[in-house]
Amino acid sequence: MKFYTPYFRRVSVQISTSLQKGLYSLSMPRHTTRRISNTKKMSVFTQNLNPITGTTCWEEKDPDYDYHQEVARSAFADMLHDHERNEKYLVALKAAIEKKHSLGQKAHVLDIGTGTGLLSMMAAKCGADTITACEAFRPMANCAVKIIEGNGYAEKIKLIFKRSTDITVGQDGDMQQRANILVTEVFDTELIGEGALSTFQHAHKVLLDKNSIVIPHSGIVWAQVIESSTVRGWNRIDPIRNSKRNNILVDTPISAKMCSGVATVHDLQLSQLPIDSFRRLTEPQEVCRFDWSGKSPLKLTETFSHQIRPIATGTAHAIFMWWDLNMDTDGQVVLSCAPVWEHPDVKLEAEKGRSVTELKEKIPWRDHWMQAVYYLSPEIPISTEEDVTLVTSHDEYSFAYHLDYSQSKVDNSNYQRPICDCFLHLAYSRTRIGQLNDSSRNAKYIQVLERKITPESICLCLSDGCLLGLAAAKLGAKKVIIYESNSLSRRAMETYVTANNLSETVQIITSKSELPPGNEVNLIFGEPNFVTSIVPWDNIYFWHLSSKYPENIARIPTSVTIKAIAVEFKDLYKIRAPLGICEGFDMAIFDKLVQSSSDISDNPIEAHPLWEYPARALSASFTITQFDFAKDINQQCGIKLSNIVPILMQGHCNGIALWVDWILDSTTEVTTGPIHDTNPGSDISWDPYTRQGVYLPRKTYPVTTNNSLVWSMNFSPLSGDVEFGFEIV
């Protein structure tokens, strides 16, 4: 596995959305691309950052490397695996076409953003008279042409290689006449984040007849106020406490306490949150309704106020948000993205006496449309005794919420996007912020530090945003030197140093050239965590940095163990599973296109927060290797390992999960993997504050106890190259 351009689904989507909204500039890209021409062909060189060594290098790639990257990232196959979505689009299409025919009209269908051509082929199957599809992404459009032809609809469907907003209508235009049925799927977690509002606005103005039927017909956004220290912990950093002495070691700066966080949505599989980890303070509230049909104008910016009577007393920490689509004009076909406890299908069954836990299986799994969390600032107490005003605002792409007790209407001009001014939310992912709030994890580090720290300790902290390094100073270290290479993380740490009056004890350095000599350090500490890391073992960068110092200097952690387990994912495998036949249409061409491009451009190990994705253990967890940080990494030879692990449970092996355990000392370790013992056949409980590594094979393997997993690992300590191999035999 080469560490370049890893396929990082959810994070990559958020980054692209943030750039679209003008929120961030990426100061340190994972890779850059340069083209160098010669007489034969254009070569592509990518500048890759290796997170394990902290070095960059140029590597020559396939001339079409950029193309393959784009194709691989278009593979939202989990959306096409969503049978309920597909089925409800089909039902709505059939009804619309039949309605036009019943009125003596021809059915002229426009499919915006056709992708594989699925919705267009559905329209053809339902008897549409003409079908025009548009797709601006050229590789996918070329693929759709072949899929449509292969399924026998080439004469029925016209494909335009343009964005819908560039289509012309008229005798010499792309479309000879306006359509009277529009079908499209331009929705994301926030419903409008892919530009749905402007897409529909333009379509009604330019591409559609006045009395067109639009599929879906409308969208409803729901919001629910909740109290949850668990959810809050992904946004606000609490003080770090010494549980034995019940005192605050590291306090949170005022700027961080008051900061509203970043504007980007926090998308989560809310149905996987333990039901006892949050309290519902209000019933779900319909906060916004979008009429896609054109009967009511769509506004790019709106603000709504709703008076709500809470159903429980508590502190409002966040808003849970989801949406429904009314697929047909009569509102009889509803596609809901609600979490399990509020899903209409589940609530209907629950009325018959079945538990919510039992009914989780009733709702479809979606990774393309999850639920969202919006963090409230300020966090206000609310009571069942008094109404509260929920203010909902949206711009062209996203939503924002806040609560107050005002009874007056809110003007559109009051709409403001949340802005982070404490640097914490800009420097660290929400997963990392949650990790900083993990009190049981922090307690283990503090206990080990207490055993090591003396009044003569000079501690070198090698870890980005390491508040526990500040804890070392509060525990009595003579001096703490913190190496911070990331500018945003450094600025966040500086506010912590000032807020905790540690300027005399703590020194922040910003480059390797400033690292102190070995005779000025007697303890090296790290969590370890670096902002450049994606998979857990990327943090072995700590080993590279600490190897600059003699072996006799104490280290925390002392070593790291890489572990793995064979699993049966309930749903996650669908993001890589081939479609084959989808709703009766052959998608083999799409499968081949995406998988071949993924083989060229993607990393076979992905990073995912596995607590959101149920998985059943098929083997015992096993150790791949362990690294001793007291040894100089520069003196280590390349490692080639392999072994066989028995499969202990019958099932379908569709993934291998990997993680690391940090060995702090002889009695204490911190895991980034399962937080409870793993038993073959049982579901795995994962650490919710790290992203585990996941290998998803191209196909699912039916396994019995007669099967085994053969694994291999090649690791070059000097270059940082890591390769894993897995095979079922």
Low-confidence stretches: 1-40
Query: How many distinct domains?
Result: 5
CATH architecture of the largest domain: Distorted Sandwich
Give the helix proportion (percent range). 10-25%
Mean pLDDT: 89
Written description of the protein model:
This protein is α+β, with helices and mostly antiparallel strands and about 725 residues long. It has 5 domains: about 10-65, no CATH class; about 80-215, Rossmann fold, CATH 3.40.50.150; about 220-420, Distorted Sandwich (Hnrnp arginine n-methyltransferase1), CATH 2.70.160; about 430-530, Vaccinia Virus protein VP39 (Rossmann fold, 3-Layer(aba) Sandwich), CATH 3.40.50.150; about 565-580 and about 600-729, Hnrnp arginine n-methyltransferase1 (Distorted Sandwich). About 20% of the residues lie in helices and about 30% in strands. The chain is built from 17 helices and 41 strands. The strands form 11 sheets. Strands 9, 12, 13, 14, 17, 18 and 19 form a 7-stranded antiparallel β-sheet that branches. Helix 2 packs across helix 17 (about 590-600). The model is unreliable at about 1-40 (pLDDT under 50).
How is this structure best summarized?
The chain has 729 residues and is an alpha+beta fold.
Keywords:
globular; 41 strands; single chain; disordered N terminus; Hnrnp arginine n-methyltransferase1; 729 residues; seven-stranded antiparallel β-sheet; 22% helix; alpha+beta
